[in-house]
Amino acid sequence: MSNKPSDSEFNFLEHSMEFLKSLSKLTLIYAVISSFGISVIYFIEEGMNSGTQLNNAFKAYEGYGSVNQFFIDYPQLYQFDDQVQICDHTTLTPENFVKQYVNKQRPCLFKGYAKIWPAFEKWTNQSYLNETSGQEIIYAEKQKDNRFAYFTAGAKRVYMTYSQFLDTFQDPNRTYHYYFSFEDPPGPLKEDIIDIPIVQDYFELEQLTFWHGFGTLTRPHTDAMENIICVFEGYKNFTIVPPHHTPFVYNGYEGLPRNYSPLEFVDPDYTKYPLFKNAKIMSAFVDQGDCLYMPSFWWHQVESSKGVTLALSHWYKVQHEFTQEIIAHYQDKFL
Ligand SMILES: *[C@@H]1O[C@H](CO)[C@@H](O)[C@H](O)[C@H]1NC(C)=O
Ligand SMILES: *[C@@H]1O[C@H](CO)[C@@H](O)[C@H](O)[C@H]1NC(C)=O
Ligand SMILES: *[C@@H]1O[C@H](CO)[C@@H](O)[C@H](O)[C@H]1NC(C)=O
Ligand SMILES: *[C@@H]1O[C@H](CO)[C@@H](O)[C@H](O)[C@H]1NC(C)=O
């Protein structure tokens, strides 16, 4: 790691500030920090602007080349596993899930957890979807290829009935691909879902996203909320990279938004993107009936099954102890 921050490190620094901001309630972190003294506020605000002050602070106080190196050397602050762990929903208590996974920002795969939902029996039945909710107006992304990102050139958001949307799957010669990926489940299908037992006493639900498509690929990106995604038809194959490896994903390059990477995570072009060789790449295969816990700010590219894929995300905002640990760390080191 060189002492001079590269462009991608700048990205990371700004990103990590966004990360701290969004993981914590901003007012809370400021309140806590301001009770420590003015110098830390200065240091964090400067860090948000350019990143250089933040790096300098790490050099001066910690002897680290960059904040990224700091995260790598403090695995207890930012632990990650070699592989996505399997969580057993029948034995793992909610308390232990929060302690061992959420607070440590470790993804985990719940095999068969979606099978306890009414949706699991019902949503593979096209006639059921059509009969109960076919007349609902939905909007879908419409584009010529199946590689989806909300900003794709030429992509449109189109309104149609859910029944018309289902019909698009039947046409083998379709010119356009459609992806229902913006909203709650349509109409009465909301009755087929449940609060996810393992988090319902801990997290407050912010949002649902119903993901219905045919052979879609989602470009690598991050989201600012905790996601528990359950698959009801087909599968979703996640290829993921931990947030502290953001310096290696060229995020925001090539005119993309900062939470998108131009890379192909599955078969990367290392000549064009050599830093990506340093990235830890993991995968999580979320089969029909499984749920995946995907912590906020993890990079993920998602390849869905070749046919119909139907999944649902529950999104949560969480006040992580991780943030508190970093604050505690600053308190020890800087004050
Ligand atoms: C599919 O749904 C339709 C309409 O609700 C129902 O009549 C039919 O029995 C269902 N089929 C199966 C295999 O459950
Ligand atoms: C849905 O139902 C409508 C009639 O209400 C029918 O025209 C359409 O073909 C059905 N679509 C599917 C995919 O079952
Ligand atoms: C799809 O295209 C093929 C080849 O052009 C053609 O033979 C077939 O009839 C088309 N199917 C439909 C449903 O239009
Ligand atoms: C899922 O992704 C992994 C990693 O890229 C790959 O090895 C595996 O073959 C994929 N599985 C399917 C069914 O596409």
UniProtKB/TrEMBL annotation:
Residues 185-333 form the JmjC domain. The chain crosses the membrane at residues 26-44. Pfam families: Cupin_8. Keywords: Membrane, Transmembrane, Transmembrane helix. The keyword Transmembrane applies. Signal peptide: none annotated. InterPro entries: Cupin_8, JmjC_dom. The keyword Nuclease does not apply. SUPFAM superfamilies: Clavaminate synthase-like. It comes from the Eukaryota. This is Jmjc domain-containing protein 7-like. It comes from Stylonychia lemnae (Ciliate). The lineage of its organism: Eukaryota, Sar, Alveolata, Ciliophora, Intramacronucleata. The gene is Contig18139.g19283.
